[in-house]
User: Fold this.
Amino acid sequence: MKNVILIGFMGVGKGSVAREVVKNSEYIAIDTDDLIESMENKSIKKVFAEDGEAHFRNLEKRLSAWLQHSVKNTLISTGGGFYKQENIKEIGIIVLLHSPFDKIIKRIKAHPNATKKLKKRPLLNDLKKAQELYEQRLPEYKALADVVIDVTNKSALECAKELLKKVKKYA
Ligand code: S3P
Assistant:
């Protein structure tokens, strides 16, 4: 099994899909934001507020080097900006979870913990700016992806099954 790297915009459901992949396959999953939170012993929100975005991006860079050399056979879900790492293609098969911006926001707002989900993501505080970021990133996400999964109106389980089927040919 090669590594599978889940990329995509904030709130698209990378974590939920990763959890379903784990339930339905042999993959172990890790998450770049979770790793950064353990490295720093604080939340991503605090890292942004206390140390700044540049520090956060440096940590992502350190992680990407470590992932490339030390992690195998793993499903790696990433923060929405992690795709910018120069070596991302060397880490594994890149799977983009895609949905239109308005559907992503609708999905987050429908969640019982919507306020918390919005608050923990500093770059979602201003929705107008977030939409600009989405539009700027979308072509870059698509250009990188080996596999694209349109997650709109699909359950996490359906997306996980589609992912497992589509990555088989890269194994
Ligand atoms: C970010 C996405 C977040 C987190 C950080 C920055 C981004 O992760 O890494 O707030 O630049 O898009 P999620 O995509 O899991 O929300």
Observations:
- The chain has a mean pLDDT of 96.
- The longest strand covers residues 93-98.
- The chain has nine helices and five strands.
- The longest helix spans residues 53-70.
